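How it folds:
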Amino acid sequence: MKKIIVTFIVIVCAFVLIIVFQKPSQQIESATEHKTNNLYKNEISLKKLQTYLKNQEELTVYFYQTSCSHCKKVTPIVIPMAQKLKIDLKLRLFSYRLLLS
């Protein structure tokens, strides 16, 4: 009987610790998400992108996808770096429809 009670207490403590340590990480994610939303201001429209390509103008485009975990990690690094290097970085939301058109 004592083993069951001790096991129950350990399981409850484990859940409490998981809940306590998850909340700060969620707050960090929401703060990061707010910062990255500000990074997507220089988005280029598809028509404007096609115009650049037809005119064979030089252009630096960063394709991203909002659901991509790698994009979420890299964007806060790449965009400020491009701004620091004074690169006119155009952003374009990647979708599979682009490949079909």
Summary: Residues 64 and 71 are 6 Å apart (CA to CA). Helices lie at 2-39, 46-54, 69-84, 96-100.
